[in-house]
Amino acid sequence: MSDPRLTPDPALATQNRPAQVAVPVADLCRRPDGPRDRQVLFGEPLTVLHEASGWAYVQAEKDGYCGHVRQSALTAPRKATHRVSVPATHAYARADLKSPDLLSLSFGSLVTVTAETKDFAETPQGHIPRVHLAPVDARQTDPAQVAALFLGTPYLWGGNSRWGIDCSGLVQAALLACGIPCPGDSDQQETTVGAPVSSDYQRNDLLFWKGHVALVVDAETMIHANAHAMAVRYENIADAIARIEAGGDGPVTAHRRLGA
């Protein structure tokens, strides 16, 4: 049986129109007005498969995830040149940090730079500090370091941004920033990212529980977005394993290593 998260509904796939996200963050819902499954960020490319009653049924380019977003959150595609490489940034009315801020953007958002000054990059949305951007094809090399950018971010089920993120959203943001393909949900990540290992924990290993995933920082520490702290936090691995099992969510179900 096909996974409806990754396989477009043939009854709804009546269009094939490129678009991109035009708001800082948009919910990707299971059905119109339904529960949030994931989120998509400003500038992310999508394929619109169907439109009705103010909603668009789309498939995200970054991971193939399908869902419904509000039509008002979409616009015609524009070629991105840069991505936000810090936890969050602002687009200002002028190349002046004291000018009004027009838009807030999360890590990973995609923008089109049309001109540059000494300190700012001009985009159709406003002027963004150059130090907050990286070329769109630039890749980082350490997922755990990327995940650390989100420390303190509030936990949000299905969240993918600095304003709120969940366990699989954190792992996906960290891996995609390093050029490593990664699906959106933890059960998908558990079967497709890396390979099983049974040795000691190494930096950037992934630990899975039923419905949860964490990224190893060192032999004793992991980082994860979790409902226990309601935020992205570091946690001792042994303590987390004991706490999660005592809480009724069971033991570790997989230990996987990137590049193994």
Automatic annotation (TrEMBL):
Alphabetized Gene3D superfamilies for the sequence: endopeptidase domain like (from Nostoc punctiforme)
One Pfam family hit: NLPC_P60
Domain NlpC/P60: residue ranges: 136-259
UniProt keyword annotations, A-Z: Hydrolase, Protease, Thiol protease
Protein origin, superkingdom: Bacteria
Lineage: Bacteria, Pseudomonadati, Pseudomonadota, Alphaproteobacteria, Rhodobacterales
Family: Belongs to the peptidase C40 family.
Organism: Sulfitobacter indolifex HEL-45
UniProt keyword Kinase present: no
Name of the protein: NlpC/P60 domain protein
